[in-house]
Amino acid sequence: MLDLHGGGSVYKDQIAKVVDITNSLNPDVILIVGDAVDAPRALIESRMDPLKCLHARIGTFFTTGNHEYYYGSALEWFDHFKNSYGITILDNK
Predict the structure, then answer these.
(1) Rounded Cα gap, residues 74 and 1, in angstroms
(2) 54: left (phi > 0), else alpha (psi -120 to 50), else beta?
(3) What is the DSSP letter of 6?
(4) For residue 39, which of 63, 15, 5 has the smallest C-alpha distance?
(5) What is the DSSP string of 56-67?
(6) Which residue has the higher pLDDT, 38 or 61?
(7) Which of 74, 81, 83, 85 qualifies as a cystine partner to 52, CB 3.0-4.6 A?
């Protein structure tokens, strides 16, 4: 998954559809490789909630793109994705 751009013009129902399609593929691993968000966390946090429904045998992993830094602290998104959605954060590890 890349460039979800949640916020602005991408809404919760659209993200849920991407999650449903992804899960229907029965993936071993899901990689969210940046630009998942396009607005500050306080404005769109609930829009991203469908991500908690992602299911992969090995796990779901996230790394940032530039947009996570455009809209406040990327660390806020790291914490939210990890603690609320169970997504493993890859941050220079």
Answers:
(1) 18
(2) beta
(3) B
(4) 5
(5) -SSEEEE---SH
(6) 61
(7) 85
Amino acid letter for position 3: D
Q: Which amino acid is it at 15?
A: I
**Which residues of the chain form beta strands (DSSP E)?**
29-32, 59-62, 88-89
Confidence of residue 76 (pLDDT cuts 50, 70, 90): confident
Amino acid at position 22, single letter: T
pLDDT value at 39 more than 90: no
pLDDT reported for residue 91? 82
pLDDT (tens digit per residue) in 2-15: 788 888 788 999 99
CA distances from 1 to 42, 51, 61, 93 (A): 23, 11, 10, 20
Strand segments, DSSP code E, in 8-50 are 29-32
